Amino acid sequence: MNEHLYRSDTETESPEVGVLLADHFRRPFGFQGHRSKGTGDWLIVYTIHGSGSFRVDREVHVCGAGDVVILSPGVPHHYASNEAGEWDILWTHFVPLPDWMPWLALPRTEERLICLHLRGDEIRGRIEQTFHRLIRDASMSAPVNRELAKLALAEVLVLLYHYNGEQESDRVMDERISQVIRYLSEHLHLKHRLSDLAAMAGLSPSRFCHLMKEQTGDTLTERLTKMRLAKAARLLELTSRRINEIAFDVGFETAYYFSRLFTGHFGISPTAYRQRMWQRQKTSL
């Protein structure tokens, strides 16, 4: 047992939400991190060689060469390098664009970890090459580099999603749930009744709820809220529309409720998020 996974007296600082970060670390035994409330963004960690572990509640996942761990926002987690030499990892913190969300619909453990093992030099080499492009461009401030970093990250997500589909075809998201998620993404502004969505999937409400949780790791309400918040974040960044208009357009009944959920999810208010995104655009011109 790696005792460093259970030393949570010091919280590890979370990165600024909305900033795409990526890097390559080589860390000896003793390297550790503890985030009792998770982060406001997503985290991908790919192990090149060596060994490290993640702990989420009682679940411990040991990572070796070719392993990928993905953590969604708000998942409390602890990580540490193991005794088997240096833990050589590639990592990125990011907030996905709405169009990327289907690629993150990967199987989860009971504790909401996404864990993949990449078999074969070809897929590992492709992921590592793409990750290094992501790291290089994410470290630069020019607009062209930021766009290239997004493209590299999107490539990583697509590669992982399709690899999972090829290797674990029986675990690809159930088409009935995929159909409902596609419908929701196109009708975020509407109110949705559980009975109607279950009927769309051809399932009873109880079976639909069970399958949604099994396939996505989220309840229906959690999934719909995340989709609405992701769309809202994009509208805040790309438009000058008022916050209450954006809130209503993505399906929230009040601007206050929207702001409360947005702040809880991203760790920053909608107004501050917009100002930060716009300031980044101005300073990079």
From TrEMBL:
Stated name of the protein: Helix-turn-helix domain-containing protein
GO molecular function, one term: DNA-binding transcription factor activity
Span of domain HTH araC/xylS-type: 178-276
Keyword entries, A-Z: DNA-binding, Transcription, Transcription regulation
Keyword Nucleotide-binding applies: no
Record InterPro entries: AraC-bd (IPR003313), Homeodomain-like_sf (IPR009057), HTH-like (IPR037923), HTH_AraC (IPR018060), Tscrpt_reg_AraC-type_HTH (IPR020449)
Top-level taxonomic group: Bacteria
